[in-house]
C-alpha cells in the first residue's frame, strides 16, 4: 500500500494530456505511418529483417509462417501475433501489393474476401524483389537501434534500392491523421527518379507525364489524370477507378457485360451481391442472369442482359450504384525525420533519392575502409616474402606465437594486423605463383580504393551509381502498366499523356475495332502471300482499314446513317493477331446498327465537306462543321431509302472531282461542284445510274490540280490494276459511266477502287483476315478494259474484302520476296471485249440538271 509521502497529486487534465500525447506519438511514429525513405511501417520492416536473419530467402525452401511470426514477436515486435500475421499475409497478396514482398505458399486469402489459413498451415519466404530492400544492410548503410528489451538490435530503416513508398503504397490510421498512398508502376517511378537526377529543376508537368497516375495491382481503368495530378501537386487528391468491361454478343440477339478487372480493394463477392440486390429491388432492369465465371486464368463476371436492354445504359447504371466504379482518396502522409508530413510526388522522390545518396555514400565508406585494411595486409605479406629467410628464422627461434608476433613488429616494423596475417600465412603462399597472385590482388585492391575515393569526392558519380542501380532494378522487375488511363467526365489533360503517333486502324465486319503502330506491316512485292492481320471469328472479316494519328478524330457512320466519333488514342491498342474491341464498348450504338463508314478527321472546323455515296447510286455533300457537336448518342448523317446503305464517305474541299465505281466494273467521273451542300438529314441526288443487278462499291475523290495519279481497281479474287485517270473523261452526274475493268469469272466482281500515287503503299485484306502490303510501283498500269494481274494469292474460298492506301511519305519497310509459283504476267484483253452497252444516256435527275456541255457515253 502506497504511503502518503509517495503519493504525488496530479491534476487529471494534465495527466490525460500527457498520457494521450504519448500514446498518440507512439501510434504515429511506431505503428501506423510508413517511413518516407523505405515506405515501410515498423511491423513490415521487422518482418522482412527477421525473415532475412532466419535465412528465409528466395533461394531457400518455404518455412512455416508461424516461425516467422513467432521470431518477430519474440525479438522485435511485442504485439499480438494476429496483427503480425495479417501484415505478413498482406505483403504476399498479389491483389493488395503491386509488387509482392513475400512469396507465400498456401491459402493467403483471395479477392473474394476469403481469409487466409492459420499461420500453422501456411508457408512463406522472402520474394526476390524484397531482397533489394535489404541489400547492403550489413555494410553500415543505415542506423541501428536496440530492440524493445535491448537484447539485440534492429535497423531503423532499410537501405531500399526500391522506391517502395510509392511502389506498393501504404494505408494506415493514426491518431488524428491517416495515410492512403496508392501503388505505382516501377518503370514509371524509375524513369521519374532518373529524370530528376539528370534535371533537378524538372518541371512538374513533365514529371507528371512520366508518372501519370497510380498503377493498381487489380488493373482496371483510371478516369482521367487530373485527380492524380492534384495529389501529386498537393499530397491530397482523388482518383476514380472503374472496372474493365466488355460487351459480348450472345445468342438470340442478347448481349452480356463481361467484367474482367475490378477496382483496387473491392471485394468481388460483395460486388456481385450488390448487383444482385439492385436487380432484386428492380433499381436496375434488363439483367437476366449474373454469374461469377472466374478461374485460374483470371476474373470473369458475366452480367447477361435481355434482348431489349441497351448494354451501355445498364453499364452506366452499374457504375453509378455499385463498386464497379470507386474513388481512391489519396493522402500521401509519411514520416520524414520522425515527423508526419503530407508529401507531393516530387518530395516523395526527392526524399528517396536523398536516402539512396546517403546509403551509397556510407556503403562506399565501408567498402573503402575494408579495401584499405586488405591493402595493408597484402603490403605486409609482400614485404614478408622479401625477407622470408629472416622471418622464418625469427619464427623458429620464438618460444610462442606472441613472442613471434612481437619480434615481427619490433624487428620489421609490421603492424599487429600484418604480423597476425604473416603468422597465419600458409606455406603454399611461398611459391612464386602465389606471390604473383598476391601482387595482382594488391594492384586490384589499389584500383578499387582509387575508384571509391573518386566516388566519395564527386556527388555526380554517386548519382551515376544510383542511376545504374535503378536501371538494373528496372530491367529485372519492371512490367507494363496494369491500370489504363482513360478520359474522365471532367478530365481535359489525358490527351497530353498520349504522344502523337501514326496508327493503323482496322474495323471488322462484326464491329471490332483496334489500332496498331503503322510499322506493323512491312511492304511486300505483289503476288505475296501476306501475313495474318487479325484473329477473327470464322464469319467475320476486316471491312475498314486506314492510317490516322492518335490525336486526330475518327468518325464512325453506321448503317442507320448516324455519325459518332472517337479520338485515335481512345481506340484500344491491340496486337496484330487480336480481333480488337467491340465498338459497342466505345460508342452508344443501338442494337442492330452496323458500322458502314469510318473517316479519319484532323479538324472538324476545317473548310471541308463530307461527301457520301450510297449503294443505289445517290450522292450527298454536307459541311464538316455540321458534325462538330457529335454527341455520344450520335447524329443523323443522311436519310436513306429502303434497301439502300452507305458504301463510301470522303472528305472533300468543294472543288474536287468524284469517281464512282460499281460492282460490275463501270465508273463515272464528275465535278463535286455539281452537287450542292445539303443538311445532315437530306437524302442526296443521283450520282450514277445503275443497270440491273448492279450497285456502287466505291467512291473516290480527286483533288483539284492533282497529277500523276491512277485509279486502282481490285476484284474479289485478288486481281487488280492501275489505270491513268486521263482515260476517264469527265461526264455529267447521273450517267451510266464507262467501263473501268473487264469483269470475268476468273477475276470476279469489283470489291473496291482507290486513287493511287506512285509512291503509295497498298494494303489488301481478305475475309479470312489475311493482310498484304504492296508497293504501288509494283502494280501494273493497264488500260480501262483489261482484267488486271494477281495482287494477292488467295486461299480456296477466301475473297478480298477491303483495300486501304498508305500515303507515300510512310515508311514502306523492306519488301519481301514473292512466293514461288505466283505469276505476274499482264492479262490484256482485246478491244472486241469492250462492253457493247458502254455508251449510255444521261439519267433524268429530278432535283438538279446535268452539267452543261458534259460528254456522256
Keywords:
alpha+beta, Gyrase A, domain 2, Topoisomerase, domain 3, 4-stranded antiparallel β-sheet
Structural domains: how many: 4
Shape: elongated
- Beta-strand percentage range: 15-25%
Strand order of the largest sheet: 14-9-8-17
Helix content: 25-40%
How does the major sheet shape up?
4 strands, mixed
CATH structural fold name of the largest domain: Neuraminidase
Helix/strand/pairing category: alpha+beta
CATH superfamily of the largest domain: DNA gyrase/topoisomerase IV, subunit A, C-terminal
SS summary, helix count: 17
CA radius of gyration is 38 Å
Query: What is the residue-averaged pLDDT?
Result: 85
Number of strands: 41
CATH architecture identity of the largest domain = 6 Propeller
Low-confidence stretches: 810-857
Give the C-level CATH assignment of the largest domain: Mainly Beta
Q: Please state the oligomeric state of the protein chains shown.
A: single chain
Termini separation (Å)?
A: 125 Å
Describe the 3D structure.
The protein has 857 residues and is an alpha+beta fold. It folds into four domains: 40-158, Topoisomerase II, domain 5 (Alpha-Beta Complex); 244-323, Gyrase A, domain 2; 361-475, Topoisomerase, domain 3 (Orthogonal Bundle); 498-810, DNA gyrase/topoisomerase IV, subunit A, C-terminal (Neuraminidase), CATH 2.120.10.
Summarize the structure.
The protein is an alpha+beta fold.
Amino acid at each position: 500500500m502506497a504511503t502518503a509521502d509517495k503519493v504525488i497529486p496530479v491534476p487529471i487534465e494534465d495527466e490525460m494530456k500527457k498520457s494521450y500525447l504519448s500514446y498518440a506519438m507512439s501510434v504515429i511514429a511506431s505503428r501506423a505511418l510508413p517511413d518516407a525513405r523505405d515506405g515501410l511501417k515498423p511491423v513490415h520492416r521487422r518482418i522482412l529483417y527477421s525473415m532475412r536473419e532466419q535465412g528465409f530467402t528466395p533461394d531457400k525452401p518455404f518455412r512455416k509462417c508461424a516461425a516467422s511470426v513467432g521470431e518477430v514477436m519474440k525479438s522485435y515486435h511485442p504485439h499480438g501475433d494476429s496483427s503480425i500475421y495479417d501484415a505478413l499475409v498482406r505483403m504476399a497478396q498479389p491483389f493488395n501489393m503491386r509488387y509482392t514482398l513475400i512469396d507465400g505458399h498456401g491459402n493467403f486469402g483471395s479477392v473474394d474476401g476469403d481469409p487466409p489459413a492459420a499461420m500453422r498451415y501456411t508457408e512463406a519466404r522472402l520474394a526476390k524483389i524484397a531482397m533489394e530492400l535489404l541489400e547492403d544492410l550489413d555494410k553500415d548503410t543505415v542506423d541501428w537501434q536496440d530492440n524493445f528489451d535491448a537484447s539485440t538490435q534492429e535497423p531503423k530503416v532499410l537501405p531500399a534500392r526500391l522506391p517502395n513508398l510509392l511502389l506498393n503504397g501504404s494505408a494506415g490510421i493514426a491518431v488524428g491523421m491517416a495515410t492512403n498512398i496508392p501503388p505505382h508502376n516501377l518503370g514509371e517511378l524509375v524513369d521519374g527518379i532518373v529524370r530528376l537526377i539528370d534535371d533537378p529543376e524538372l518541371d512538374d508537368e513533365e514529371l507528371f507525364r512520366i508518372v501519370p497516375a497510380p498503377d493498381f495491382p487489380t488493373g482496371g481503368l483510371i478516369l482521367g489524370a487530373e485527380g492524380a495530378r492534384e495529389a501529386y501537386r498537393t499530397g491530397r487528391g482523388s482518383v476514380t477507378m472503374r472496372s474493365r468491361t466488355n460487351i459480348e454478343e450472345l445468342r438470340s440477339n442478347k448481349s452480356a457485360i463481361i467484367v474482367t478487372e475490378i477496382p483496387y480493394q473491392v471485394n468481388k463477392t460483395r460486388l456481385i451481391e450488390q448487383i444482385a440486390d439492385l436487380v432484386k429491388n428492380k433499381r436496375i432492369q434488363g439483367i437476366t442472369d449474373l454469374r461469377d465465371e472466374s478461374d485460374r486464368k483470371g476474373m470473369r463476371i458475366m452480367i447477361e442482359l435481355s434482348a431489349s436492354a441497351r448494354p451501355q445504359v445498364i453499364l452506366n447504371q452499374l457504375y453509378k450504384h455499385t463498386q464497379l466504379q470507386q474513388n481512391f482518396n489519396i493522402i500521401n502522409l509519411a514520416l520524414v525525420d520522425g515527423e508526419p508530413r503530407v508529401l507531393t510526388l516530387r518530395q516523395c522522390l526527392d526524399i528517396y533519392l536523398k536516402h539512396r545518396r546517403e546509403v551509397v555514400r556510407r556503403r562506399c565508406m565501408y567498402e573503402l575502409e575494408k579495401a584499405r585494411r586488405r591493402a595493408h595486409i597484402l603490403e605486409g605479406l609482400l614485404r614478408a616474402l622479401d625477407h622470408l629467410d629472416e622471418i622464418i628464422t625469427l619464427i623458429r627461434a620464438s618460444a610462442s606465437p606472441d613472442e613471434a608476433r612481437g619480434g615481427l613488429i619490433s624487428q620489421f616494423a609490421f603492424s599487429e594486423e600484418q604480423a597476425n596475417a604473416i603468422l597465419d600465412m600458409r606455406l603454399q603462399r611461398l611459391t612464386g605463383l602465389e606471390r604473383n597472385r598476391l601482387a595482382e590482388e594488391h594492384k586490384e585492391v589499389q584500383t578499387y580504393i582509387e575508384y571509391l575515393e573518386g566516388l566519395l569526392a564527386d556527388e555526380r558519380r554517386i548519382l551515376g551509381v544510383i542511376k545504374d542501380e535503378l536501371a538494373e532494378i528496372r530491367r529485372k522487375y519492371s512490367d507494363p502498366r496494369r491500370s489504363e488511363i482513360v478520359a474522365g467526365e471532367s478530365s481535359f489533360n489525358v490527351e497530353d499523356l498520349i504522344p502523337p503517333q501514326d496508327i493503323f486502324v482496322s474495323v471488322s465486319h462484326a464491329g471490332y475495332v483496334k489500332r496498331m503502330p503503322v510499322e506493323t506491316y512491312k511492304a511486300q512485292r505483289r503476288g505475296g502471300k501476306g501475313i495474318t492481320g487479325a484473329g477473327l471469328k470464322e464469319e467475320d472479316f476486316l471491312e475498314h482499314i486506314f492510317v490516322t494519328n492518335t490525336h486526330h478524330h475518327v468518325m464512325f457512320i453506321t448503317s442507320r446513317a448516324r455519325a459518332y466519333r472517337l479520338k485515335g488514342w481512345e481506340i484500344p491498342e491491340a496486337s496484330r493477331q487480336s480481333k480488337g474491341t467491340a465498338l459497342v464498348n466505345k460508342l452508344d450504338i443501338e442494337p442492330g446498327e452496323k458500322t458502314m463508314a469510318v473517316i479519319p478527321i484532323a479538324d472538324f472546323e476545317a473548310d471541308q465537306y463530307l461527301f457520301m455515296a450510297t449503294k443505289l447510286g445517290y450522292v450527298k455533300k454536307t459541311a464538316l462543321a455540321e458534325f462538330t457537336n457529335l454527341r455520344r448518342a450520335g447524329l443523323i448523317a443522311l436519310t436513306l431509302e429502303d434497301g439502300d446503305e452507305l458504301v463510301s464517305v470522303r472528305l472533300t474541299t468543294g472543288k474536287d472531282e468524284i469517281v464512282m465505281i460499281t460492282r460490275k466494273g463501270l465508273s463515272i467521273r464528275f465535278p463535286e461542284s455539281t452537287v450542292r451542300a445539303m443538311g445532315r438529314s437530306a437524302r442526296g441526288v443521283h450520282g450514277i445510274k445503275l443497270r440491273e443487278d448492279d450497285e456502287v462499291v466505291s467512291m473516290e475523290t480527286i483533288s483539284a490540280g492533282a497529277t500523276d495519279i491512277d485509279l486502282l481497281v481490285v476484284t474479289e479474287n485478288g486481281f487488280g490494276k492501275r489505270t491513268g485517270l486521263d482515260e476517264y473523261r469527265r461526264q455529267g452526274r447521273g450517267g451510266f459511266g464507262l467501263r473501268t475493268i473487264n469483269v470475268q469469272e476468273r477475276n470476279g466482281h469489283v470489291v473496291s477502287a482507290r486513287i493511287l500515287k506512285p509512291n503509295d503503299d497498298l494494303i489488301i485484306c481478305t475475309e479470312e483476315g489475311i493482310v498484304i502490303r504492296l508497293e504501288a510501283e509494283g502494280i501494273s498500269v493497264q488500260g480501262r478494259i483489261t482484267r488486271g494481274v494477281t495482287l494477292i494469292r488467295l486461299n480456296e474460298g477466301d475473297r478480298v474484302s477491303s483495300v486501304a492506301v498508305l500515303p507515300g511519305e510512310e515508311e514502306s519497310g523492306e519488301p519481301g520476296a514473292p512466293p514461288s509459283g505466283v505469276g505476274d504476267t499482264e492479262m490484256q484483253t482485246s478491244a472486241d471485249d469492250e462492253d457493247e452497252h458502254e455508251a449510255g444516256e444521261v439519267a433524268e435527275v429530278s432535283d438538279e440538271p446535268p452539267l452543261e456541255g458534259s460528254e456522256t457515253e
